[in-house]
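Subject: for your reference before the review

Hello V.,

The reviewers asked for a structural picture of the protein, and I figured it would be easier to keep everything in one thread rather than splitting it across files. Below is the amino acid sequence we used in the manuscript, unchanged from the supplementary table.
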Amino acid sequence: MKLYIYDHCPFCVRSRMIFGLKDVACEIITLPNDDEETPTHLIGKKMLPVLVTENGDAIGESMDIVKYIDETYKTPVLTMSDDSAIEAWMEEATNLIFPLAIPRWATSDFEEFRQDAARQYFINKKEAVLGPFPRLLAQTETIVTEISSKLETLNGLLVRQERNTGRYSLTDIRLFPLLRSLSIVKGISWPPRVDAWLREMAVRSRINLNDNIAI
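And here is what came back from the structure prediction:
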């Protein structure tokens, strides 16, 4: 199998997680961010992740990839129910996390941005939606204060006992990439339970956090 990804992309992180959690082998291929040809050839549009299965089929939605791997290889691990409170938390937190993370991704040394043209492609696309990155970065202090308060709320929502049994939920698959995205931001106040959960999931899913390159 081959999984085409961008390292920074939270949707790609979702698809990567299930391979680590289940110890299923897969070739991970990071594409330049401006490579439109490869994903368009595979699934008809410029979007990642894309999984090419052992049968040669292409799957292009992150949660479809997650469910396919969980149901096809070994014993399913996504057997816990979704957590509606955490799902609601994510809906609110997303609007704070991405304005912090996206302009920082644009200046970081991710493989998909190693070529100047690929980095500028990303900047042009995202600034067209979010506005100039310097303006977003100037709002850092305000947004960090807001998200730190939100993280305190999440701290009270998280329970860790299910992770001890090797069982997970789709909420876990959605939450980890969101918090990993936030790990590239300096000055975040991580409550103890959130920090422990995030680092445990990083180890279990075999996906690095970005705190070592935080800006």
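For the response letter, the relevant points are probably these. Strands lie at 2-5, 27-30, 50-52, 58-59. DSSP finds nine helices and four strands in the chain.

Happy to draft the paragraph if you're swamped.

O.
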